[in-house]
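Hi P.,

Sorry for the delay on this. The queue was packed all week, but I finally got your sequence through. Input first:
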Amino acid sequence: MICDRERLARFLQQLKSPSSSGGFTKSDLLTPAFHLAKDGDLDLYYSPHNEYINPHAVVAISGITPGFFQMQLAYKKAAQLLKNGETLETIAYETKKAAGLSGSMRQNIIEMLNECGLPAALHVEDSSRLFDSKRELLHTTSVIKHPVFYKQKNYTGHRPAISRSALLSRYALTCFPDEIEMIEKDILLIPLGKAAESACRMLKKNGRMGHAVILEGFPHPSGANGHRFKQFHENKQSLREQIQRFAGFLQQL
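Then the structure:
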């Protein structure tokens, strides 16, 4: 399901524009053509991959915001699909598959979810299947739907805090829960890292995303998170127990 077809079509049209360089570097993509909003030193840019929503998901994994690498992959895939004459639906879905939680981060997520027992809870052979043959079970997204940059560097969720930016707060407190609430089933919501988890917990406390069970304590999977292994080791038993409870809940449905 596409969240905003008109917006997706409008930004994809920029790839066909005579003024488009046809490249996918920061100087090509972090430009006015793809710019959504500004708030002080923060800049928000459009990326097509988070326009797709899977309303039938059982698991939703949410980062804080896509980084430039994900944005770059999304536009590369979109340009290829446009050239092939694909539909908006196909472009939205395929860019999501290609760019959502991509790179080494995806493999780190898969390995941790395997150790937490998620495959058994979902009756799949491996968590990697969620990204291919069992994709219908998964929705990937971000608390801030589109890529945010602080002084042209990937926003990490802390500088500034979401609560200190009207722009970030609108996306985190309105757009994000609106999206999650489009998912029709009760879901296991896995926020990646403390900033994403804090936002999810606050939303639940305020009565949003009532059908979501938040998996608490899952480390951010980025290789830049030097404390990832320690955090995961400390939280592993709790994560396993939370997933087992969710599995039991699914069996009662």
